[in-house]
Write a structure and sequence with these properties.
25% of the residues lie in helices and 12% in strands. It is an alpha+beta fold and 265 residues long. The longest helix is centred in the middle third of the chain and has 12 residues. Bound molecules: zinc ion (ZN).
């Protein structure tokens, strides 16, 4: 025999491998598709990066207190709250319904770099923002095609009715190496993967919090604008209980899953 193993040995080899093969997981498939520059594959317990790094997926802790989830999220926790893509008109989110706000810091730091060490700036690419309406230039990370997708958003927004332009020009910025207000966690702005539109029309949960702690959802951003961002992979902070209605961030995995109807009953 020139090469290969006797069939029975091949079969034994395959059976030996089976326990280590990951079962297909739609959430992780969506994650790989969202970040093709960086992610290669996954097993049942680990995410495997293109540079060979293995990162633990952890578990989904839907029973963990919300504040703890925000501070100590595993990668699987990022999918605990589904993104409600289709809702017209908008609805007020239920308590702590913050799809996308639960982020594993280690995951995003490896993905986009640490701005505190100057690792993000080098990847920022300039984009003309609504060039037909004097939006100037904004800069977003080129990693995973974020800048390309934001440029598509800009092109689509450049053709919307004139009365909607005031929400979009001027923008209130993309890259900003800072933590989220009142936390030590980095914001998606620190990765050059989030944009704030015109702050004049923004509503933010911390500003709207009542003395008794109640948060009353508020929003001025028209649905048409939100739909254009979502079409190109950006989730909207207006869909959060802890809302930030001028904020959009690149999280196409959550939108893909919403389109697939995840989670299914
Ligand atoms: Zn923001």
């Amino acid at each position: 025999m020139k090469s290969g193993c006797p069939p029975v040995l091949v079969l034994a080899f395959l059976l030996a491998c089976l326990p280590f093969q990951a079962l297909a997981d739609p959430r992780l498939d969506a994650l790989l598709a969202a970040y093709p520059d960086k992610l290669a594959s996954y097993t049942d317990s680990e995410l495997i990066w293109r540079d060979g790094t293995h990162m633990p997926l952890g578990s989904a802790h839907s029973d963990r207190p919300f504040a703890e989830l925000l501070d100590r999220a595993d990668i699987r926790d990022q999918f605990v709250i589904p993104y409600p893509l289709a809702s017209a008109p908008f609805r007020a989110p239920t308590a702590d319904e913050d799809p996308g706000r639960i982020r594993n810091d280690t995951f995003f730091l490896k993905m986009y770099g640490d701005c505190r060490r100057g690792e993000v700036k080098a990847n920022l690419r300039p984009i003309p923002w609504l060039p037909n309406h004097g939006g100037g230039t904004v800069r977003a990370t080129a990693i995973n095609g974020v800048a390309d997708q934001l440029e598509k958003v800009s092109r689509d927004l450049d053709t919307i009715p004139a009365e909607l332009l005031r929400y979009l020009v001027p923008t209130s910025g993309i890259y900003n190496c800072r933590p989220i207000a009142q936390t030590n966690r980095l914001s998606m702005h620190a990765f050059g993967a989030a944009i704030d539109i015109n702050a004049r029309f923004g509503n933010y949960w911390l500003w709207s919090k009542r003395p008794n702690g109640t948060i009353v959802w508020q929003n001025q951003i028209p649905q048409r604008i939100v739909e254009i961002f979502e079409r190109h992979g950006f989730i909207w902070g207006g869909r959060w209980y802890h809302f930030d209605s001028l904020h959009f961030e690149y999280r196409p995995e959550l939108i893909t899953l919403a389109r697939q109807g995840w989670p299914r009953d």
